[in-house]
Amino acid sequence: MTSNFIAMSFILLSSIFTGIFYVSFGQVTVRRLRNNPATKNALGFSFVSGWDIVNAAQALSWPTCLMKKLERGSLFAMYAKADLLREHTTKLDRVLARLFYGSLILSGGGGIVVVILNKLGFLV
């Protein structure tokens, strides 16, 4: 087994977990937030269908001070309103958001690192 195969296996496994957490978080939490009139318009701008799931996970995963800074910026409409989402979610929802967002960042960032290392010749 080469290092390239091991790295790609890790990225594939991480991507599978990301997909499972994406569907779970979307069905359990974001569906409820979309149906709630108080949080319906607090999920941020959605570029494509399902992007509000990523926005909600980001808002529930990042520290409150950082989200407040983003919400005060000129692109405030792009981000979900973290304070409002925290009021209407449970501890389980926040844990699921962190699992999903962490695996999303890990698989995406890991994929980029593997491609760069492969192009530089470190993975054979």
The count of strands amounts to 0
What is the count of DSSP helices, taking H or I runs of 4+ residues? 5
Report on the biggest sheet: none
In whole angstroms, the N-to-C terminal distance is 10 Å
What's the Cα radius of gyration? 17 Å
Strand content: under 5%
Q: Into which percent range does the helicity of residues fall?
A: over 70%
Helix and strand run: HHHHH
Assembly annotation: single chain
- Arithmetic mean of pLDDT: 90
Task: Domain count, please report it.
Answer: 1
Shape: elongated
Low-confidence stretches: none
Structural class per helix/strand content? mainly alpha
What's the topology here?
Layout: H1 3-35, H2 51-61, H3 64-72, H4 82-87, H5 91-120
Helix pairs in contact: 1-2, 1-5, 2-5
Tags for this model:
124 residues; 72% helix; 0% strand
Quick structural summary:
With 124 residues, the protein is mainly alpha-helical. The protein has five helices and no strands. The protein has helices spanning 3-35, 51-61, 64-72, 82-87, 91-120.
